[in-house]
Every structure is written in structure tokens, then in C-alpha cells.
């Protein structure tokens, strides 16, 4: 059965590992790569793509080139989308609103004090997501 898979993608190594994992493990599934412009530094806005600053839209276009390149290797089509907001909250809300079956995301692998100080988007998504979450770690 084809699933609807959400892959939060920011161009980092962990997000690239997650995209590769989704393409390998879920061939034929409808995969969406979501770039979240962190609204914490963008002023008052919530989720509306029309309000995403040009530099963030340009960054999303750049990272989606990597998405297209990876998809081509696997002869797959990956849909891309951009949203603005708190990353974890936006990922969870998007998965729910778009009826995703699963979220596949990377983990930066922080532990101890670093994780306590910076928080973990992946950890929050795992706690709050309405669907199963797979964390893909780089080796």
C-alpha cells in the first residue's frame, strides 16, 4: 500500500539521510519534502507561504534542488512545500492537515547539555505527531 510520507527537509546531512531513507524504504509512496522557515526570527507570521521572506524562499529553492537530485536517483517524484512557523509545531500540524501516514526525519544526535540547551525538534515531533515518526540517523 502506498503511503503519504512527510520528510522535513532543510538541506542538512540529517535531513538528507531521512530523505534517502524514505526513498529507499518507501518506493512508490507519495513523499513530500517540507521546508519550514523558522518564524522565530521572522517577525509576526503564522504558516502563510505568502508571508515568507524572499531570502527564506530562495533558501527553500536551493535545498529543493537536492531533493530533486535525490529523487531522480531513485526514479521517484517528491512533492515540495514551504511553510513558516515553529519547526516542530509546523511539521506536526502539516502532517495532520495533509493526512500524512508517516513522518521520516533526521536527528542531529545531540545529547546531554547540548540537547537541554537547544531543545530537539525531532523529540517534540515524536511526542506530538498524530502519526508514526521514523528517525533516520546518519552513520
From TrEMBL:
Domain UspA: 3-137
InterPro entries given in the database record: Rossmann-like_a/b/a_fold, Universal_stress_UspA, UspA
Transmembrane segments: none
Gene3D superfamilies reported for this sequence: HUPs (3.40.50.620)
A Pfam entry, by short name: Usp
Domain of life: Archaea
Family under the similarity heading: Belongs to the universal stress protein A family.
PANTHER family in alphabetical order: STRESS RESPONSE PROTEIN NHAX (PTHR46268), UNIVERSAL STRESS PROTEIN (PTHR46268:SF24)
Name of this protein: Universal stress protein
Source organism of the structure: Saliphagus infecundisoli
